[in-house]
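Let us work through a complete example step by step.
Step 1: write down the sequence.
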Amino acid sequence: MQIISTAAHADAAAYLAALAFAERRALHSFFDQHVIEEEDGRYVAIDEGDYDALPSRIIDRVVHTVPGRMSDEF
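Step 2: predict the structure and record it as tokens.
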């Protein structure tokens, strides 16, 4: 039997919530969605289109990327 500590469970839940948000947002975006780990252990999802070029301080914290799924090519 595997025991998951409360902190590890909270981290996993926060990551999965940010990932789900990024996946939903990617369906309606031309830009990649990135899951970023904050310094305090939280996870957030950002849209690459919100930035001209991602600064290295953000790139270093990317833990997952969901490609944008909209296409203007038919």
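Step 3: interpret the result. The radius of gyration is 14 Å.
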